[in-house]
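Researcher: Sequence recovery benchmark, item below. Answer with residues only.
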């Protein structure tokens, strides 16, 4: 009789496969929280970008107003921006800055109603423009004839969940 020879099988055992799966599961559990809340970070980045645009537009419009003799409105990129106290209006001649031909700070900063919710409050004293995006927001407060506006940078009003 021939002696039985042990035949070597090549491959992984069930225990080895289970251990690899367990290790991958543990690594995934540690990595998942780092990537889970990217939506909130994106919202905050978008509103911070809009806040920077409003701050820059306020400074540019004020500088153009000063260079133009400190009277009247200014023209930025072919669009007339209504000025109050040397700074852009919160809203403009329309009741909501969401309309494309608005001539206040939303137009100066090129904020789009497709990207942000723009809420103009003409009843406030002085009038305000609230720019929001999915819970994150800031407020631009219009200047009057004697004071400078409360710009987004000075209010630090980024309210994100």
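Model:
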């Amino acid at each position: 009789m021939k002696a039985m020879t042990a035949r070597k099988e090549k491959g992984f055992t069930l225990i080895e496969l289970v251990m690899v799966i367990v290790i991958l599961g543990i690594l995934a559990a540690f990595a998942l929280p780092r990537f889970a809340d990217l939506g909130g970070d994106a919202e905050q980045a978008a509103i911070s970008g809009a806040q920077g645009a409003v701050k820059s537009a306020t400074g540019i419009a004020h500088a153009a107003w000063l260079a133009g003799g400190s009277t009247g409105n200014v023209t930025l990129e072919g669009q007339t921006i209504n000025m109050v106290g040397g700074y852009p209006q919160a809203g403009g001649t329309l009741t909501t800055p969401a309309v494309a031909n608005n001539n206040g700070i939303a137009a100066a900063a090129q904020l789009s109603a497709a990207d942000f919710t723009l809420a103009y409050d003409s009843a406030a004293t002085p009038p305000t423009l609230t720019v929001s995006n999915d819970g994150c927001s800031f407020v631009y407060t219009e200047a009057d004839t004697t004071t400078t506006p409360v710009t987004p940078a000075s209010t630090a009003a980024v309210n994100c969940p």
